[in-house]
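Quarterly update, task 2.4: HDE-bound model.
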Amino acid sequence: MSGEIPKVPGVPSTTTPPVDEPTSPVEPPAAKPDQAEPAVATATGTPADLPRGRAQQGAYLTTAQGARLTDTDHSLKAGRRGPILLQDHHFREKITHFDHERIPERVVHARGAGAHGVFRANGAASSITRAQFLQKDVETPVFVRFSTVLGSRGSADAVRDTRGFATKFYTEEGTFDLVGNNIPVFFIQDAIKFPDIIHAGKPHPDREIPQAQSAHDTFWDFVSLHTEATAHTMWNMSDRGIPRSYRTMEGFGVHTFRLVDADGGTALVKFHWKPRLGVHSLVWEEAQMVNGFDPDFHRRDLADAIEAGACPEWDLGVQVFPDTPEQTFEGIDLLDPTKIVPEELAPVQIVGTMVLNANPTNFFVETEQVAFHPGHLVPGIDVTDDPLLQGRLFSYLDTQITRLGGPNFAQIPINRPHAPVNDMFRDGFHQHAVHTGVAPYKPNSLDAGCPFMAAVTEGAFVDTPVQVPAAQKEREVSRTFDDHYSQVRQFYRSLTPIERAHIAHAYTFELGKCYEQSIKERQLQILANVDTELCETVAAGLGLPAPKATVEVPDLPSSPALAQVGKEWPVQGRLIGIVADDTTDVDQLLEAVQAIDAADCVPLVIAPHGGMLGGAVPISRTFLTARSIEFDAVILASAAPDARVGILVDETFRHHKALAAWGAGAKALEGREAPGVVVADGPQAAVGQILELLRTHRVWERNAV
Ligand code: HDE
């Protein structure tokens, strides 16, 4: 029998009143012009409408199963004043999903910011590596994540710390990750000590303070007992520990890697990222203020710059060393990650350029879920026996299985290789692939033997057959790792006087925050072995006697390349504040704004109120919302009688930033005659002089902070 089923008596349907939506239904918004998403990859055979995902289709709100909903504001209750019913699937699904929205943060490098970009090789590396992405004019999509190390996910950006600089190259031969830092040396020489240095740097286990800082007893306890940390600690105390921007940081692979050419010949290399905008830092007082006034300073700076089209660029370079059995260069052990090779001994040769040109569309999906690994290598790039690198090769995959909830995180859009993947891995949490066939094993005949092994000529990755010297098993490092001081002294003495003063100030501050006198004394002893004057300055600041050196340390030649002060750089993307008010000549103000724009810098007009000035110039900040830390330089077009303008000028002056004025603004600079304080005869001249001063980043001739 067929036909329509006859109606039977039932519950009378109630009509739910239509929801009063502010607009008529539309499709989800598209990504903004400055945003990009991970490219659709082949790994899981995903159709082209992903990765935006099945979760955001159509104009109507649905359950996770796709049923349209009439109401998401009220739970299903037994009467308007009654209890919620267990049967309310939408309520339970919504709350359950929310309850599980967070994943564990990274155990280190939890705080970060990411961006998409492109790397273009210039071909210079073709002679030393067969890596396809390093051949001339090859363009490779990249995703970069910058990070601090110690702080948790919500911590402030401008803390004194090392910065992570991790780059994922989606090459045609598989993904290559260069998981580096902005400091070229590391605290420890053996990976087994990583939990120790991190436990020492993280907040104290009893009170969980301080957050994201090294200025506390456990950190200095460890590094003062552990002299191989002296180099990294000194770099942290230098201006490198408080970058002005992710855009103005160098990056380093830290370890020595091995490149393999088309004929199987090898060379040892160290990777360097050189920012086109130069290496620039904050000053310490400014950094502390930033963390209060704008904890997202670096994250915002990167996203704003990319959105504005001021896309940051880095050159990738290599220092190249012969691959000798000793793996040393000019007496420096290339397997010791606490050592650098000065650029004067081995120049950094540029092999390509990276531009970061798109912001992530979704922070969690991309920046939070991205998973780097120093073992993600491609043919032509191999690891060395650096004992720190060897340990890292274990750690990253291990931690990511917990953090990303199982072994299938390579299928997350941001982690999908752009090369075809056929890995025979099956099942597991969050499996997205619909694998075909019956034989995920090798050898097999049932799937016709697929997948097959590749030859080198077919692009296979081959572990370099390096000779391993006959040796006995031992828990030791090479004696050539033993010198913990000479390169630290070399670094310190290669810097300009202002940079050295910053280091002395940083040690004095950090040790001054420690409670245990024995820790301070021990650290002073280390400094005595590095540089007498530095030790004496810090000791004087702490009110302790300066000890004498206990170790004979050889003097190495100076390496001027280590200094970041004393050079000139492009000024693109710098933020210039212009103080104005309703009395300011609007035409002149417009002239200044346009001149700053024309130099590819960002003009930000600061006024007593929001809105416009003279109906023609938009106001970016008010005296209430502006603070000096945001601006690289300040121009005064008005001497507005407001205490907050005085504070702005004071701080800008104290932090060595350029100041200029024209017209009525000159009054605000009275009594401040000093280098880098300019009274000009008009807006063009004021902007011109500011741009010139910005080329050196700060006016260091002014008294030190
Ligand atoms: Fe890492 N490191 N690390 N590290 N590291 C991690 O991996 C580790 C080291 C670096 O933005 C973790 O996925 C060990 C040196 C960066 O996602 C973890 C040792 C350098 C990032 C880990 C080191 C780095 C990490 C935590 C000592 C510079 C952030 C989350 C042997 C060359 C990557 C994760 C991102 C992250 C282990 C030392 C760089 C725990 C055991 C040296 C940039 O696996």
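Highlight for this quarter: The longest strand covers residues 349-360.
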